[in-house]
Amino acid sequence: MSREMHCKLLISIVAAALFAPVAGADSMAGLAAPAGVLQPVDRVIVHKATRKMELYREGAVVASYKVSLGLVPTGQKQREGDYRTPEGYYRLTRRNAQSDFFLAVQVSYPESTDIVLARRHGWAPGGSIMVHGLPNILKYPRDRYLNNDWTDGCIALSNEDMLDFWLLTGLGTPIEIRP
């Protein structure tokens, strides 16, 4: 079994154990963290200029990660294929453990304002903006992915940081992407 497949199997086992529904607990899209084991964050902020992501719980930073962005990182995403990472207020909407990348969590881009902006110019807004780890099949040395912007507009983390992100966030978690 490859290292990536081994990690995915381990993640599914850990996630099932940590997020098994707890009677009477608030639901996190059907998954609740057992009290005292793992408390999800309530907000994510990405700072594009400094390539940093911060995870917050009750106003305090509980984790900070280095990120890679789209190939054209400066400016707001305007249309499909512009290689920009969007800016604004979004939510985490879907989780994919079977991605071409080491885990993937979808960002709610495009929101209505993004669609209006793109359509005003006759463009498709694009979509499938994700927070994800490295590609499952690397075309380049690992350091190239970790030290450069390389995505089509997504937010990429190291696989180790992506595992933390996966375990600390839930569906509906707000994510703010700042310039």
Keywords for this entry:
23% helix; 179 residues; eight-stranded mixed β-sheet; globular; single chain; L,D-transpeptidase catalytic domain-like; 4 helices; alpha+beta
Describe, in plain words, how this protein is organized in 3D.
This protein has 179 residues and is an alpha+beta fold. The chain has a single domain (42-178), classed as L,D-transpeptidase catalytic domain-like (Beta Barrel). It has helices at residues 3-18, 112-120, 142-147, 159-168, and strands spanning 43-47, 52-57, 60-66, 88-96, 104-107, 130-132, 155-156, 174-178. It has an eight-stranded mixed β-sheet with strand order 3-2-1-8-4-5-6-7, covered by helices on one side. The chain is globular.
